[in-house]
Amino acid sequence: MQLKLLLQVCPLVAKLKRFYEFSLRLENALRSLLEALTSPPYAPMQHLEREQALAKQFAEILHFTLSFDELKMTNPAIQNDFSYYRRTISRNRLNNQQLEAENEVNNEMANRMSLFYAEATPMLKTLSNATTKFVSENKTLPIEDTTDCLSTMACVCRVMLETPEYRCRFTNTDTMLFCMRVMVGVIILYDHVHPVGAFAKTSKIDMKGCIKVLKDQPSNSVEGLLNALRYTTRHLNDDSTSKQIRALLQ
């Protein structure tokens, strides 16, 4: 019975491994994109205008990241199945047995995957760490070059979502959702790397406008995005955050 259950779980574990390995590739890709979109001599808006293909790739990564994490948060079976796999593999190891499945995900890989999937939003956590690391490793690059790039993208998305002449060009709800996910993604990255975050009065992101745009949509399509702002940002509960913004996210 135990072997039968394990054989059912193994394909799922293999898929989780592929997503974990993909997160590492996304981390490297994001850092390369940030370097391309923030390097001198151009300002962030100039970069986004000159490097539209790279900006689109950045947006695609954020769209996937938010999509993946929303699905992960609504599927607790992911961690339950993986925990069962790890327990079974450990038990067999104690009994000097090694199953073929262990060749796919050995103990060291399982430990790394466990830390990854323990996060509420694992892909977003990976990108936030990558952005923070990019800023810390590029000390000669003013942090404003990175935060201005992120805030500019957030502004572009907000304007597209709230301006009727732009919204009428959206052919379906998927395009709206794409813009909302990108907007929320860059807000979260901005909040992780900016010294006072995205919610302070000095922030270059219009947080009230961004939150209002989200709340104007059907709740079932944006609740995951609002939760991402509530629970994966760093500065929401700082003293510099106004009561009005906190109230908007309640």
From TrEMBL:
The gene is fam49al. Its main location: membrane. It is a lipid-anchor. It is found in: Membrane. The keyword Kinase does not apply. The keyword Oxidoreductase does not apply. It holds the Pfam family CYRIA-B_Rac1-bd. GO terms for cellular component: membrane. It comes from the Eukaryota. This is Protein FAM49A-like. InterPro entries: CYRI, CYRIA/CYRIB_Rac1-bd. GO terms for biological process: regulation of actin filament polymerization. Residues 6-246 form the CYRIA/CYRIB Rac1 binding domain. It comes from Gouania willdenowi (Blunt-snouted clingfish). PANTHER family: GH09096P (PTHR12422). GO terms for molecular function: small GTPase binding.
